[in-house]
Write a structure and sequence with these properties.
mainly alpha; two-stranded antiparallel ribbon; 109 residues; 4% strand
């Protein structure tokens, strides 16, 4: 199929659309900041910079406890096998959790 068969529109039918960025009220250019405002902003930045905390914080203790009990291979979480689940259930219901007076100690994971 050639371009003659498809038909080509003449160049005169194409209209150009121009967007004037300076007359559009929805787009605002940043205003000039006075030296006093700049100094206040820099001081606020420096104060916030001093209070940054880069150490690891634990937000959810339950998630941490669950992650500690999950099996890992080279530090990454691994899928549990039926054997792992059986061993875990046996540990949960072992007689070592039953005290002398017959009460049971509930493990917290």
């Amino acid at each position: 199929m050639s371009s003659m068969e498809v038909g080509i529109a003449a160049d005169s039918t194409v209209t150009e659309v121009s967007i004037d960025l300076f007359t559009n009220p929805s787009i605002q250019m940043p205003t000039q900041v006075t030296p006093i405002d700049r100094e206040a902003r820099v001081l606020r930045y420096r104060e916030k910079k001093k209070t940054r905390k880069f150490e690891k914080t634990i937000r959810y203790a339950s998630r941490k406890a669950y992650a500690e009990t999950r099996p890992r291979i080279q530090g990454r979480f691994a899928k549990r096998t039926n054997l792992d689940i059986d061993i875990e259930v046996d540990q949960m219901f072992s007689t070592s959790l039953i005290t002398q007076d017959g009460s049971c100690t509930v493990p917290s994971f």
